[in-house]
Each structure stands twice: as C-alpha cells, then as structure tokens.
UniProtKB/TrEMBL annotation:
Family according to the record: Belongs to the complex I NDUFB10 subunit family.
Keywords for the protein's UniProt record, in alphabetical order: Electron transport, Membrane, Mitochondrion, Mitochondrion inner membrane, Respiratory chain, Transport
Organism per entry: Smutsornis africanus
Name of protein: NADH dehydrogenase [ubiquinone] 1 beta subcomplex subunit 10
Function: Accessory subunit that is involved in the functional assembly of the mitochondrial respiratory chain complex I. Complex I has an NADH dehydrogenase activity with ubiquinone as an immediate electron acceptor and mediates the transfer of electrons from NADH to the respiratory chain.
Chain positions covered by the region annotation Disordered: 1-23
GO cellular component: mitochondrial inner membrane; respiratory chain complex I
Protein localization: Mitochondrion inner membrane
Claim: Mitochondrion is one of the keywords in the record: yes
Superkingdom of origin organism: Eukaryota
Stored Pfam families: NDUFB10
Amino acid sequence: MPEDSDWEAYKVPPTRTPVSERTTSVPNPVTFFQTVFNYVVDAPVTFVREWIERQQAKNKFYYYHQKFRRVPDLSECLEGDYLCFFEAEAQWRRDRMVDQEIVEIVRERLGACKQREGPNQFQNCAKEAELLAQVTKAYQDRYGDLGVHGNARTCLMKQKHRMMEERKAQANASQ
C-alpha cells in the first residue's frame, strides 16, 4: 500500500454481526446468570486457588536440588524388612545413575581433549585416557553383566561372588 493511501478507495467492509439494540427494559437473563455464577461459584474458587498459590510461593520446592539421605545397603537390611529393601533398591538405582554420569563426563572430557590436541592427543591426553580406563573398569566391575533388569540384589550377589573368587585366588597363591 502506498504511503498516501486514499482511505475512500480502501474502505473497511462493514461487519456482519448486527449491533444489538435494546428495545426492552427487562434485564437480559444471560447476564443475570453470568453475574450469579461469578459471585457464587467463580469468586470462591478463584479466592481459594490464589490463597493456595500464595502459600506455595512462601515455601518454594526446587525438585532439582533435592538431596536424598543415604539409606542402608541391601546387606544391612533385616529379613522381611520390605521397606528397607525398597529404599536400598532406590538408592542403588540413584548410585548407578550417578556412576553412569561420571563415566559420561570423563568420556566427554577425553573427547574434548582429543579434539583440542589434535595429532598430539596420545601424549597430552594420557591422564584423561587413564582416568577413563579406571572409571569404566570400576563401572564394569560393579554393574557389568547385570543387564537391563539388574537390581541391587543381583549386584550384591555379583560382588559377593567376585570377593569369593579373589579369596580363593589368594588362598591358592599362598599355598
């Protein structure tokens, strides 16, 4: 459209909605019911909701800063203490997630070092490579061969079997 547009040439079309003209003095029942609804239903609900929001604003809960207390290991639970079993299982899952993140962070650091150093990566990234080897070996020793459905009990049994094999190997070496 040009700057000096002729408003007569570009008229706005009239609206198709007819303008309501009041011809009676009787109030509209729809506005009456809307007003009653607003005061009887909507106003109390809105008041309660705003009061709840004010109470929640006083005590903010940041889920991403949640800190869990350490619970006893599965080996420390008493027989038949299912709540302890559940807590130990949840603690084991959190520990496994933390260990996975540790391995991933060390792997990313090694990748960044290799990218940064280029052809000298074998000399300059030796510490990161050694750390990655240690971390992955520790993760594999603890969680390896458990599969997708591994849990705290199977992990504990795996550690027990590994310790028994190490004791047998020490006993055979000392004889």
